[in-house]
């Protein structure tokens, strides 16, 4: 079973609430969608890999991605909407891959107040915290194919831009 997938049967056997099981099923469906997308080959190549340095931040392995989507904002908020974290800064900012847009975005950790508001990037403008507004808090970095973007990220080509955003 792929690292990012969660086994459902043991959850049911150990008495997890049905709502938790249902949420985990939805999470697994999203993982499968990412695996079938253009970012899928990258995910398979980093299964079990450690974090590595890239453009001044951390290029995530699958265990770090799992932690980000399960535990930390903004990634835990964005993943169910189709945004996969691939890189984080020391300060908690992230680069996410948008499944539907096939693009890479900057997600600033200060732009999200769970249950309250989403900040528009580069402004003090707040929007209500809704699924429709969450993507508006992202800043598009690239529409390059994953192989190209990730190679540029590893080569440090985004260091200055990410330092500027961080």
Provide structural commentary.
With 166 residues, this protein is of the alpha+beta class. It has a domain at 50-165. It contains 7 helices and 9 strands; from the N terminus they run αααββααβββββββαα. The protein has helices at residues 9-13, 18-35, 40-45, 62-71, 75-78, 146-154, 159-165, and strands spanning 52-54, 57-59, 83-88, 94-98, 103-107, 112-113, 117-119, 126-128, 138-142. The strands form 2 sheets. Strands 1-2-3-4-5-9 form a 6-stranded antiparallel sheet, with helices on both faces. Strands 6-7-8 form a 3-stranded antiparallel sheet, with no helix packed on it. Strand 3 (83-88) and strand 4 form a beta hairpin. The chain starts with 8 loop residues before the first helix and ends with a helix. The mean pLDDT is 90.
Task: Set out the fold topology.
Elements: H1 9-13, H2 18-35, H3 40-45, E1 52-54, E2 57-59, H4 62-71, H5 75-78, E3 83-88, E4 94-98, E5 103-107, E6 112-113, E7 117-119, E8 126-128, E9 138-142, H6 146-154, H7 159-165
């Amino acid at each position: 079973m792929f690292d990012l997938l969660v086994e459902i049967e043991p959850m049911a056997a150990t008495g997890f609430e049905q709502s938790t099981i249902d949420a985990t099923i939805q999470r697994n469906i999203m993982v499968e969608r990412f695996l079938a997308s253009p970012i899928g080959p990258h995910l398979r190549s980093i299964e079990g890999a450690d974090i590595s340095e890239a453009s001044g931040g951390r290029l995530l392995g699958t265990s770090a991605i799992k932690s980000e989507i399960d535990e930390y904002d903004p990634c835990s908020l964005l993943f169910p909407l189709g945004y996969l974290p691939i890189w984080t800064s020391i300060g908690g900012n992230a680069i996410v891959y948008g499944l539907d847009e096939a693009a890479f975005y900057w997600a600033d950790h200060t732009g999200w107040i769970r249950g309250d508001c989403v900040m528009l990037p580069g402004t003090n403008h707040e929007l209500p915290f809704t699924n429709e507004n969450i993507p508006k808090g992202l800043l598009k970095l690239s529409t390059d194919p994953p192989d190209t973007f990730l190679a540029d990220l590893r080569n440090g080509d985004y260091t200055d831009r990410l330092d500027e955003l961080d």
